[in-house]
Amino acid sequence: MEHGERVVIEGVEFEAALTVRSDIGLLALHGSKEGGTAELAREVAARTGATALVFTQPAGTPVHIPSHRMSEAPCEALREFLAHVSLTVSLHGHLRPDATRSIFLGGANRAAALALGRPLALLVPAFAAVTDLELIPAGLRGLNPRNPVNLTRAGGVQVELPLAARTARPEKVQGAPETPPRAVADALAAGVGELAAERPG
Question: pTM for this one?
Fold first, then answer.
């Protein structure tokens, strides 16, 4: 089942596109601001049979609204996602100048972070998967209890991807979809597959 919704959050207009499949969910809250996360969420969900919820901003310069404030939005698609999904993989982008090859795996479900991190760890030397919370910058840990990644029944994993892991484009082309690196999409799909295999029932 697929449906879209227009919603205004803190004065910013968003399009929320929900595709309901399994009880594992791919989430991209900042699909326009953090390029490549929307494309990765859609692709990985389609390849693994997971549910997907992608937020994009159809007009103007993309605005970043913190994840914990997105959860307070009057958005039916988000409410349906949180009710249907038991485990969330939330894709984000970071621009840390000292971590341009680091993929940080935060979120409250640490067992799931470790499982998702195993295929991503095989991306070395191109990228380094970091699952130790002490090594993840505080602002990227995704541990706020109001963050949507932690609101599903089993919580989830917040994946913070550097620019090079989200797009193969050397420069941003306004309005054009990003092209995430194939190896990253493959590793995320493998990790979500592992999470699905470990789910009860």
Answer: 0.95
Please state, in angstroms and as integers, the Cα–Cα distance from residue 130 to each residue in 98, 186, 196, following that order. 14, 18, 21
Ramachandran category for residue 3: left, alpha or beta (phi over 0 → left; psi -120 to 50 → alpha): beta
What's the one-letter identity of residue 138?
Answer: A
Q: Which amino acid is at 151?
A: L
The encoded tokens of residue 5 equal 């919704």
CA dihedral (136, 116, 126, 30) in degrees, to 10, reads -70
- Rounded Cα–Cα distance for residues 17 and 194 (Å): 25
Contact status, residue 13 vs residue 6, Cβ threshold 8 Å: yes
Which helix (H) or strand (E) segment is 119 a member of? helix 110-121
> Each residue's pLDDT tens digit in the chain (201 positions)?
788 999 999 999 999 999 999 999 999 999 999 999 999 999 999 999 999 999 999 988 899 999 999 998 889 999 999 999 999 999 999 999 999 999 999 999 999 999 999 999 999 999 999 999 999 999 999 999 999 999 999 999 999 999 999 998 655 566 667 889 999 999 999 999 999 988 775
